[in-house]
């Protein structure tokens, strides 16, 4: 591919440049910043792969093609207008800088991004260039473009960037904006060099928006636009204010872009077509961040460009002091604007107009150099591509989707266009030359050509995608995306033939060419289906009721992918070729053995698996196709199957379903480099020797074909040219002109290009004219009326309209037949009634009986049978309708009635208009009930650990119990006693021993109590649990409590909110709301029932009253009250219970409405019938009531007055009195009942209003809770995973702690066991010594025997096996110890070595045996002690390991807890951002500033009044509690000090008592004795007398002490009174001292002020003196200067030398006087002149 984006196949016969760009008719108005200004008359914009330079005055175009062929990303112009930049699109694109106006390439910048550039911009002085890449890297690069070097580079952001720009006020600042962001950049010097530092703008509470444009202000602020039309003022990276117009109107409607700051106003453009100027000073000072509201202001100036204008970018004219701007209109135009905003400024001028958006249809005239296009902008345009100008433009009501130029066989003048639109309408347009139309015609056409609507019809209900004429011009076919193809007969007026349905949306229609024998239509569907229809079959079709041609023969083809099989065969052929090549090479160069090895390798290679055959999951799209031969056609597929042209044919088996069949092409043609770039459109030259292909990438391919090459075997060499945009400019339309001199292309990027196939000189020679010929108007064109156009897109299509007409016709015929039958029946009924009347008028003897009037009973029976049969048939026919109606009724009841717990019931007052209604409550369902999430219980592992701990704890207890169960055997040792004691002595000794044993038991018990008491004694670090709980509560509730909005707020564990708790809150709130509504509904329903009962009661009383008044004269009648009635809304359940009469009346009304033939909708008609029926029912009910009342009045009026006697008159008067009383009582009861009911209703209404207010608050609360629940659910997964980790760590910690506690308990138990074993060992020795007695000569021997260490044999049992006993190996050191001990004993024994296994002579054998038993037990105890010590060491090691593990788990737990705290803090911050509505009344607002409520209440705090009162009371309580706690602290400290002193005194007292006790024992016993032994002694009477005397004296002393305590108390009170008086005196003294000090301070301050004032006055006087002195000095110096000047002037006239003025001035300047201060340095001044100077001065002055 050459640098221009064109390529050619090597060794091809195609000319080097077959296509020469002639003109560009399009403009990509939707591309951002696609308008630049090179000078005052040259515009520059991008058109596909071309850069267009447009001269505004001459409209001439110059072109620069993309160097890479990959497209152009963006452009910009240097501030000097001498250079412009083209940033391209491709892999590793370049930025190319051209010179202007020479258009020579100047610089190339490489390596700025990976795929494409989205925006480029120079800085203010043009020294730097900034560029931003598109996806995937989004690189921001600053270039020193003159050196082609990168200055700075970094990633801008991970979103699309629309714009980059430098600040014109600060060259170090720049900004980028784009999709949902704006970013502020600064070039900063760091210790590593220059860096780009960026801050992303935070929108805060403002919704995120795409920012298309912005302006940087002088102070660093930035004003940007928004999607909704307001301006955002950015300060730093936050929004300082959102600017709008007054009354919160947006600055623009739609997107707004500020584009320049000029002459004190900020100019903005918008998608509403407006240009507005705003006061810059107001914008710069705007601030709405305080109260969160918007800053409102009005524009200074505004300019409306036009209707349907959407401005997207503007550029200013480079002329100095020019106010002319050129604007890009996204609706397809370029405008010239004068933004001086003066009265003399010209109106906006539209310089150029183009299509907006992709081109949907394009075709050329078959007779002239004209081209017509249609696009989604609802316009049809006609161009003259010979003179490169637009001839005509017409706009319609819907977007255009298809266009074709009628062939000459249809229209000889070549001026008929067929256009299809998005709503399914097809319009026939006639192109004519308006200059040839009479001037008196009423048609006024703008432009050089006119378009006239000839006919409009709507064959489809979806967009028209294809239009095609049959080759003879007799039939027009239209295809649509509604999967139908409609056919019309061609003539002066097009008539519909019918339509066929196809398997998919129609992509294209191709009629067979004239070379084919049969005339067929090829219908191409987007899903890969192809259908063929014969034209002769179409002409033979008869019109049907619905226009659908069901019997039309057709052939179908459904494409089946073969690409993977083709690739597989290619791979197989490639491998086979490589194999053969290797065989040849091996035979030539290798030996036989090596060849065999290679063959083995080849066999291994052949075993490699070939590529699998794949089928696309979704069918590949079909792009285009055309006939090759009769029955054969070529298809171009996209997607998976791109890369080939497929040659297909219709199968002979056409019986299968078209949607289920699968057909494969019988041949294919590979196309180079089209796997990702399929062919979208094709066209042939008139001689079919040139094939032009429009590609998916927007390029054109030119192929040369051999004549008659239907198989395209010569389609090999090609010439490719990149024309349209490579990314979105799919080339769907390509055409050749009628003379094959031009090629026209139109793409989805909105560009239209014309290319010439001949050089310019040859083209001018071949063309004799400079303009295309416009068809003249046809004959009678002026007299033809306007055709009716279809403006409403909801208009029925041709088929739908015909179906409706046929349906209406059949319905009218049925109704007419029914009416005729009914008239005939009525006539027969009338005649029969006349016969009956005549029969009744005859005498009875000649009158016919009813039985005689019947023709025959069989007729009646037959009629009844037919009637019943007909009824059964009707029931069968209506059974489905009945079931359907029944189901519909049940569904309606289920939907509207059953889901409601209580329907809406209105209860109306009787004497007023007050009413109260129930709440509409739906029934509770299981899905509506929120479920609570229960916290998980303890895990099985914890239970297992607990069970193990319990088990392990039980084991040492068992060991301890076994140890405690052992008893030291104390056998009776028979001693040889020399003296026998008597019985009394023995008895006395026994009693003494018993008493001693009791005393020992008592001591043991006391020691046990002491041990228990010491065990219960708390340790030094012990803390009271109650105190610990109080401290924890104080830490949570007292101190610096952080608000929830504080960043450092830590959510307490018990207050952490989860989705389960929030659901529980929601459920509680809903249940509370529902309970209140249900309770009030019950009361309202009860009130309704009361009213029902009251109405029946009042009716009964009214009836009774009427009876009473019937017996009273009319003059005594009191008017009865108006009786209330129950309104329908009070008993809504009765509305769903219609009776038979109501249903019958509804049927009659429905039949009447049908008979009238109303054309309104069924739903509206049914609603009207129901309203009419309900009204008639009400009228009937009222009429019945009125009738009943009139009948009662008539009955009353029928009574006749009769004259009465005196007695009857008296009885009548008595009766009148009674009746009057009854009448008054009844009226009073009725009135009371009504008033009471109205009062109850009014009270209930007031309660409902209060409940409504509470429910509104509850709804607000529910909305807040739901928002919080949504936030919690968003973070629930993350929090859940962290919570699981936390729980796992917590469980592990608990397990470790439990194990550690268990091990510690075991350790303590083991240590206790060791102590007990040691005590047992000591007890054994004690028992031995007790058994030996005193003066035993074998004591040492037996002790040696007892203490001797014996090598004992240990027995080991192997697990699962009964083996022999083996001797355990002891360590060598222990054996040596044993031997040493034995040797020691042997050496120390008296009389040589003694055998410890034999009792020595003279020793008691029982005692010796007892000693051996004790030794065995000692050895057992020692072994047990060794084992216990080993267990203790193992437990200590395990405890140390568990402690380390606990520390690790605690650190992990803290880390997880910190993460969980961060999540909870984030959750709390997001919940804090939610708005909570709190309705307040004005008296509840206490936040007052300067006597009024401020507008900004963000600093206020909303607190419950009761809570506020409680907090105030709590302050006082806390102050009291603080005082009490301080007093308690003082008392506790005093008590602690006293206890310490008392403890110290008690210890000293104990020591004194012990000394005294010892002294007394020494005095009494002469030695220290065991006091416990004295307990066995009997009592001493004298001692008891002394004790009693001591007690009496203590009582007397205590009484005396109490008396002295009372005296001391009185003295203490007197002392307190004196102290109080003294304190008052001291307070008065201190107050007087403070007043004295205050007075002294005031006096001192006053003196200081006087001194300062005096110094200021002195200084002022000195300044005045200096001023006077300086003024005099100035006057003196001025006089001296004047004198010197006069002297100089005199000397100058004499011709002598003149002393310089400076020297003279220096000599004459006096030295300023200074105060004499020896410490000051000498003042600098002019040096003394030298003698020479003095002499010269004197000489000059003589």
Short description:
The chain is an alpha+beta fold and 1742 residues long. Strand 19 (214-216) and strand 20 (222-224) form a beta hairpin.
Describe the structure.
This protein has 1742 residues and is α+β, with helices and mostly antiparallel strands. It contains 23 helices and 62 strands. A five-stranded antiparallel beta sheet has the order 1-55-54-53-52, with no helix packed on it. A five-stranded mixed beta sheet has the order 19-20-21-22-26, with no helix packed on it. A hairpin with a 5-residue loop joins strand 42 (484-489) and strand 43 (495-501). The longest helix is centred in the last third of the chain and has 114 residues, at 1581-1694.
Layout of strands and helices, then pairs:
Layout: E1 6-8, E2 20-24, E3 36-39, E4 42-47, E5 50-55, E6 61-65, E7 72-77, E8 83-88, E9 94-99, E10 105-110, E11 117-122, E12 129-133, E13 139-144, E14 149-155, E15 161-166, E16 173-178, E17 181-190, E18 193-200, E19 214-216, E20 222-224, E21 231-235, E22 238-244, E23 256-262, E24 265-270, E25 274-279, H1 280-285, E26 295-296, E27 301-304, E28 311-316, E29 324-329, E30 333-338, E31 349-353, E32 359-364, E33 370-375, E34 379-384, E35 389-395, E36 400-405, E37 416-421, E38 426-432, E39 450-457, E40 464-469, E41 475-480, E42 484-489, E43 495-501, E44 506-511, E45 520-525, E46 529-534, H2 535-539, E47 554-558, H3 563-589, H4 592-606, E48 622-627, E49 632-637, E50 644-649, E51 667-670, E52 679-684, E53 690-695, E54 699-704, E55 718-722, E56 731-736, E57 742-747, E58 752-756, H5 760-766, H6 798-841, H7 850-853, H8 857-897, E59 900-902, E60 906-908, E61 915-917, E62 921-922, H9 940-965, H10 983-1016, H11 1025-1037, H12 1059-1110, H13 1140-1156, H14 1162-1197, H15 1206-1274, H16 1276-1332, H17 1339-1347, H18 1372-1388, ...
Helix pairs in contact: 3-4, 9-16, 12-15, 13-14, 16-19, 17-19
